Structure prediction request, 225 residues.
Amino acid sequence: MRIDIVSLLPELIRSPFEASIVKRAQTKGLAEVHLHDLREFGIGKHKQVDDYAFGGGAGMVMKPEPLFECIEGLTAQRTYDAVIYTSPDGKTFDQPMANRMSDYRNVLIVCGHYKGIDQRVRDTLITHEISIGDYVLSGGELAAAVIADALIRLIPGVLNDETSALTDSFQDNLLAPPVYTRPAEFRGLKVPEILTSGNTPAIEQWRADQALARTRDRRPDLLGE
Ligand code: SAH
Prediction:
């Protein structure tokens, strides 16, 4: 998967792609992340990228010209399965959406700033509008990093068996069961006995029960009950 991110502040999200699983995915050649500095497409000597909102009111708006030039430059080079605009009014990002997008080959993510981007960019170049939750961030970069991370870890070969995505929360509409590691007793706190029994079917059953109980308790909405 190739992910292109168009941003006014690419330095804000360089580090999430230079560590851990996401970095390993790139080293293994399973994912590529390219950051594009929108400022380079700014207009005139001052590389202007924003302007006043027509109709007045507080807050600047990202101008269409730099976005068109940058995005069209990219779409001329390859076909994108999704040209995403990160926006609080988009569809809320969730695991089923991440699963559906995980086999995309090319994904372009546009990060907004200020009051957002000129609507004409959204109307003509954007294919998907995604929000990462009902709150407002100062820019789309962190949202882009969240989306990219969630997609990259689903690419086959990125996670090894121990970290398999299939046992994580939201797969099967369930939260994950509790997990424990050594020591079996710490400050008098004991690990549930079943986990040290070696009885694999019983452990699997315990985990399934715990996952269901936790989901009922914390997120009954996932069960549609
Ligand atoms: N005026 C806009 C908010 C702009 S916030 C509104 O009220 O809808 C500035 C930028 O941050 C947005 O253009 C978007 O790219 C990003 N952003 C803010 N909150 C976000 C969220 N919940 N999910 C995804 N992107 C978000």
Remarks:
- Residues 86-89, 111-113, 115-116, 131-133, 135-137, 139-140, 143 surround S-adenosyl-L-homocysteine (CB under 6 Å).
- The chain has a mean pLDDT of 96.
- The first helix runs from residue 20 to 27.
- The helical segments are 20-27, 64-75, 95-101, 119-124, 141-152, 200-218, 220-223.
